[in-house]
């Protein structure tokens, strides 16, 4: 399972709710996955491939090689 190496964001679990006639009748499990990208970034001055979420990329927390 991929995990963001900057912020630590990873897959989370919860319940999917089926709503019928305004009552919650059934619950099934589901997962939410972060938008993980593989990028070549500078780590300690060396280029290295790391897993980074799109939110960290947009925020400029990663120095790309």
- Average pLDDT level: 90
Overall spatial form: rod-shaped
Helix content: under 10%
Strand order of the largest sheet: 1-2
Please state roughly what percent of the residues sit in beta strands, choosing from under 5%, 5-15%, 15-25%, 25-35%, 35-45% or over 45%. Answer: over 45%
Main structural class? mainly beta
Q: Number of folding domains?
A: 1
DSSP, total strands = 4
Give unreliable regions as ranges.
none
Question: How far apart are the termini?
Answer: 24 Å
**Largest beta sheet, briefly?**
2 strands, antiparallel
Order of helices and strands: EEEEH
Q: How many distinct helices?
A: 1
Radius of gyration (Å): 17 Å
Provide a descriptive summary of the structure in words.
This protein has 1 helix and 4 strands; from the N terminus they run ββββα. The protein has one domain (12-59). The model has no long low-confidence stretch (mean pLDDT 90). It starts with 11 loop residues before the first strand and ends in a 6-residue tail after the last helix. The strands form 2 sheets. It has a two-stranded antiparallel ribbon with strand order 1-2. A two-stranded antiparallel ribbon has the order 3-4. It has 65 residues and is mostly beta strands. The protein has one helix spanning 54-59, and strands spanning 12-20, 23-32, 36-43, 46-53.
